[in-house]
Amino acid sequence: MNDASERVASLPYSSCYHLPVKVRVPHNLCPKRIKQRPFDVSLSAYYLIMGINWQPLHLGDERVFLEPLRADHFNELFAVASDPEIWVQHPNPDRYREDVFQIFFEGAKASAGAFIIRAMDNGRALGSTRFYEYDEAANEVKVGYTFFSRACWGQGWNPAVKRLMLRYAFAHVSRVVFHVGTQNIRSQRAMEQIGARQVGELAVAYHGEPVRQNVVYEILADDFHSHTP
């Protein structure tokens, strides 16, 4: 068991049984909040049976927890995303608008791999991230669509979340891919800080949004494991 798993295992957990297997999540999220909405996590249940579950319920450590995204998270997440400064360098800088963010949110739900990022101490919403476009033949998955409130910037939240996601991803694939807007220098630097390697550029069609030019980064499983305790 790695350090992150040990920290998660030490937290107070309850068991939930609305899924076809027993899973464990923090007390404040289960059983009441999740068991009342079993159909909101039906895709997670499907993947638990049929293949890789890209919305696991256990991604967290002593500081942060990734809760699978639900439809009723919209207002809470938009309260974070409505800050225009978050999106200034992003290829789609108008996501602070509710109508545009609604499109982003619908894409997140459709991905079956999206999360609302929460602080473990008080459950406050910090932002969102997702797994998406799992490619079994290429043995890879993409990680992205990540944003945090400005209060989180420079405080180590992004590396912590990416470590949790990468550890989980590399239990199933050998390559993780990231797309970052060519003008998004802040996010490009964040990629370099977690050890991602730039491998090219690509025009990317965002869900319901215009095609934008992106820098492509990758992290390989062998490289991650050799540099991560």
Keywords, please?
single chain; 229 residues; alpha+beta; Aminopeptidase; seven-stranded mixed sheet; two-stranded antiparallel ribbon; 8 helices; 9 strands; disordered N terminus
Compose a concise summary of this entry.
The chain is α+β, with helices and mostly antiparallel strands and about 230 residues long.
Topology, please?
Layout: H1 3-9, E1 13-16, E2 23-26, H2 32-35, H3 42-50, E3 64-68, H4 74-81, H5 98-111, E4 114-119, E5 125-135, E6 140-148, H6 157-169, E7 175-181, H7 185-193, E8 197-205, E9 211-220, H8 221-227
Parallel strand pairs: 6-7
Antiparallel strand pairs: 1-2, 3-4, 4-5, 5-6, 7-9, 8-9
Structure description:
The protein has a single domain, classed as Gcn5-related N-acetyltransferase (GNAT) (Aminopeptidase, 3-Layer(aba) Sandwich). 31% of the residues lie in helices and 28% in strands. It has helices at 3-9, 32-35, 42-50, 74-81, 98-111, 157-169, 185-193, 221-227, and strands spanning 13-16, 23-26, 64-68, 114-119, 125-135, 140-148, 175-181, 197-205, 211-220. A seven-stranded mixed sheet has the order 3-4-5-6-7-9-8, with helices on both faces. The protein has a two-stranded antiparallel ribbon with strand order 1-2. A hairpin with a 5-residue loop joins β4 and β5. The longest helix has 14 residues, at 98-111. The chain is globular and about 40 Å long. The termini are close together. The model is unreliable at 1-49 (pLDDT under 50).
* Second rung of CATH, namely the architecture: 3-Layer(aba) Sandwich
Fraction in helix: 25-40%
By CATH reckoning, the class would read Alpha Beta
How big is the Rg?
17 Å
Poorly predicted residue ranges: 1-49
| Overall outline | globular
